[in-house]
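Request: Could I get any protein with tokenized structure?
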Amino acid sequence: MPPSESTYLREAEQAPKRREGCCFQDPVILVRLVTVVSAAAEGYEIGYYGAVAHSLQEEFGMPASMVGPVGAVLVLFVMFGCLVSGVMCDAIGRKRSLAVTYVMLIIGSLVMALSPALWVFILGRVLVGLGIGMGLTCVSIYISEVSPAKVRGTMTSMEELFLNFGIFLSFGAAWLLMGRGYAHDWRWLVGIGTVLPTIMLFVILQRCIPESPRYLHLNARGEEARMAFKAFHYDCDEAEMRSVFASWDEEAASRGKAHSYLSSCREVMGSKPFIPAVLVVSTQIGGGIVVIVQLCSFMLVAAGQEASSTYFPCMLIAAFKFVALLPSCLYMIDAYGRRPLLLMSSFGSGVLSVVVGLCFAFKLGHEYVTACLCIMVVFFSLGLGPVPYVYVSEVFPTHLRGPGVGLVFGLSRFLTVIEVAVAPAVMAISTSGLFFFFAAVYLAGCGLIYLRCPETKNKTLEELHGIWA
């Protein structure tokens, strides 16, 4: 029989407070550092393909018809990585799963940087895609489980903020390295992607970084779970602590034998949060943001700009996308809530997608396309950028959070795989038509989010279960 709630509260009151002095003695600071740098490493891997693709065409003779499929390889295996990461997080823990993610990113980047042929480069993208997919899910789960309710939105949204910082770094590195006559410039650009994962692999294996308390609880390690909770929530108020401990007892008493992953997935798909979670993530990635990031250089070429001159405007678009995330992640997401930001962002992104499509339809030139893309990604970053990572990691109960987050992020990326694969061919026919399709996805998503997605702001993960009752 589990200890009483009063026993938990007495232990919490007697727990030592956070050490003063070096911030790196604080497990909260350490976990935040690890997760945001992880996201930056994943963003770097996502961002450079548009610049590298031109070099692949020259060095390996990659035909134009392969630009889309090679780009889609990464997105496809991001999907598979998301699907397997849920069970991996529950099987070996959040920390060890992140370590596996770093190993995949390191090996994949090295394989691409040293590739003697196109098929070897594609193999490296497979490994990197798996690593990114696993990392996106692991980081979302880990940071949502260790953050207090009042700042959970800010902390979980940091994944999107630093993912875009990594994308900005990759575009900046492409601008500095590519087209300047350096030998093996694209290989250096890819190889730089090993630096952050290598550092983070060393850091995550340190014992000073605790495991998620909710993972420990899920695996019947109650005493370790309570101690980890007290380490992360040293300033937690009594009401939240009482609610969390009571819900843990209730869940431990009601949970039967562990389910297989397939049965957990069936339970996820039958749960009430599943459809709202899929709607939010599908609107985020189905509106073409991954296509814009990976093929930005090709879009500007289609608008009339020279390929060698596209690196700076691509970096500028990434900079607008990153800067717009700052107010959203640091203030708006917890101040105004998830739902208002999603509605404003999806509607604004839809309208700007129409405007970009008109710029291509009337051949207004690459300057107008660049300006409109900058405004479009600002609208995207104010809501659809950070909120889905927060929302999806909040809505599932503890025993379904791993498979739930992995399944939603994985299945929702199927549309992106198709978009990236066929986008170059569609652009050859009608780039404006591609953006009109993106607009339709955003505007339809806006309506469905309004109808199906409730607010989750300022509620503990345990309180959120009542929304779907």
User: Anything to note?
Assistant: Residues 42 and 104 are 11 Å apart (CA to CA). The chain has one domain: 30-468. DSSP finds 21 helices and no strands in the chain. Confidence is low (pLDDT under 50) at residues 1-24.
